[in-house]
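Z., the sequence and structure:
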Amino acid sequence: MSAMLNVEDLRVEFPTRTGMVQAVRGVTFSLGQERLGIVGESGSGKSQTGRAIMGLTPQHAHISAKRLEFSGIDLLKVSQAQRRDLRGNRVAMILQDPKYSLDPVMTIGRQIVETLRTHEKVSKAEAREKALDMLAAVQIRDPARVFGLYPHEVSGGMGQRAMIAMMLIAGPELLIADEPTSALDVTVQLDILRILDSLVIERGMGLIFISHDLRLVSTFCDRVIVMYAGKIVEELKASELSQAKHPYTQGLLNCMPRIGADRHPLPVLDRKPEWLL
C-alpha cells in the first residue's frame, strides 16, 4: 500500500511571554487508503497535527518537519494559493462542532454550493443538484428542505452531516476528522461512523480520525497512534489496542468505566516525568 501522506519529524511551536511552547514534538507517520486513529487526552497535540497538515495553524506559530508531503507535494514549500486550492479540494477537515464551523448567516445549501464552485467550474443549477445528492449521501432524509435551512435550524447530528457533505462535495483524497462525533448522541455517532466508513471504502480515501475515545477508535480504525505531550508514544493495530505496551496507553485504557465492575473511585492516570522525554 503506497502512502498518500508522509509526515516526518513534524514540530509545531507557539511563542509565548515565557518562551516557545512545543505543541507537537517530532511526530512521524504515514497514511495510505486506510483509517488512522490519533488518540490522546486534551493538549496532547492531536488537533494541532491535523491543522498543520491542513495549513490551518495560526501564522504566529512555527512549523517545521523533515518531510510533510501529500501525494508528492511538499506542504511546507507550496504557496498560500496552492494551499487554498488543496484545502477543501484534495484535502478536507471536519471540525469538532458544526455550530462553530458553519456560517450562521448562510443557508446550508448555499455553503455547500459555494465550496463546490470554489474548486470546480459548474453552473449554479448543477452545483445545487450535486449538493442535494451529497446531502442524500450523508443520509439526510429531505435534502431539499435542509438545503434551505440555516445552521441554527438543524440538530447537532444533522449539522454534522451537513458539515461532512460540505467537506466531501469536491471529492477529497484525504479527510481529517477532528472529534466528529464527540458532541453527538451515541445512535447518531454510529450513523456518522458508518457514513465515513463507506466513503473510505467506496472512494478509496485516506482518513485521519482524531479522538479521545479509545473504545470508539479501537472498533472503527485500522491503526492507532497514541499521543502524549505533543509526541507519539505508541503505534499499533487498532484491534490490538487492548494489548498496548506503553504505560500511558495502558493508563488511558484502565481509566475507562467497565460495565459490571466495581470501579469506584475510577483509577487516575499517574503521569511519569520520563514520558515527556
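The chain has a mean pLDDT of 89. Residues 100-171 form one domain.

Let me know what you think.
H.
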